[in-house]
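@channel sequence for tomorrow's demo:
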Amino acid sequence: MKTIKYLLVICIALVFTNCQKEEVEIVDETVPNNVISSNSTLTTLISRVSQNPTSNDNVLDNSSCFSIQLPVTVIVNLQQIIVTTAAQYQTVQDAINAFSNDDDIVNFVYPITINFQNFGTQVIANSNQLDDVLDDCDDDDGFDEIDCIAVNYPITINVYNTSTQQASTVTIQNNIQLFAFIATGLSSGVIATINYPISVTNSNGQSVVINDNAQLQDFIENSIDDCDDNSSGGGSGGGNNPTFTSVLTTGNWRITYSFDDGDQTLIYAGYNFTYNVNGTVTAVKNTTSINGTWSTYVDSGENKFELSFDGLILDEIEEDWRILEFTSTTIVLKNVSGGNGGTDYLTFTKN
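structure tokens (generated this afternoon):
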């Protein structure tokens, strides 16, 4: 059964053609690089590229769970403002900043319509209904849409359902369809591959040809800084960034994702990491306490975070990590091996 399973996966990677005629060497029984799954780093990034942007108007709703459909009328410090374009968000911010002794609350003139990340909408009749929506929002991890780059449609995705043994090809025409496919089309037992090459548009408006998953993931990750308009350091950054240091040295952290030739997260379950301003770190699990050091620096324009621990227990996370993104509660790191070129990921989440 295992042999059949992996042959089917290879068929998908070869766009369902000539599977029975091709002789393919399967190394270590791993799936092809271009397979996408529901829990991979790449699918999360694709979702953020294709989702409905919901963070640009946070000055209005203070939430990235949804955005407010324009035009909308708001009242700030007794000043009525009709917001018809995104450029007028600054007008609202200026009204909030005008006085230091006011409540700075943005009040809406109802009804309003809100737009969710999945492109769904809801009409809100009053402030109580809005509060209910806010209460139902998932905890915000702080990582918003990546909206300064774009996928050039159409693209096709090859799908194989291992339960029904049915193969199909899905044509994606827009962001709505791509976001929906990532959210619902990658259920358990579904193997999918993007039909490369595809074309994307970078943050400078230039078209770029992408030939495989690795190129697509690198393209999106390298665009995060360009798309992040949060000057407070909520996106990427690091190196000598004092905001990153203050975030890192506040509270304690746990590892919520570790990828090193496979998901290694469970290995670090129970460890709590405390980073000190003097460059030391302590990892504690039950009665075990491991000391180490940390540092940040800039290398070839990349913000790096280096870890070192006593002994061998945590030696697998002793890397010169690139700081991909961080918020006050989450730090996402990446390392590309100089030897075999493998890519590792590490995510710390604040307790």
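heads up for whoever presents: The CA atoms of residues 257 and 263 lie 8 Å apart.
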